[in-house]
Amino acid sequence: MDSPRPILAIPIEKNVHICLMNLYTSKAGDVVAIGYDNGNIEMVFNNNWDRRMKVKYHDHHIGEITVLAFNHDENIMLTTSKDGLLFVH
Length: 89
What we know:
Layout: E1 18-26, E2 29-36, E3 40-45, E4 52-56, E5 65-70, E6 77-81, E7 86-88
Antiparallel strand pairs: 1-2, 2-3, 3-4, 5-6, 6-7
């Protein structure tokens, strides 16, 4: 524990905040889902932080992402907004 540990930071746009961060274990491996208050979603597969996938599903005026989930077959993603709206992707 005396040796320095590497620190990894990912860039986040100015004036944007993280409102959701969850780890999901899928058939293909682990997925970290990050939801931002501007409606963007970023996914990190199998802890490879250098290759992230950005997804835009919500418009900012609808509200920040509060919940993100996948169905059993992992072919549908569900998200909800701060205003209580449900989105199927």
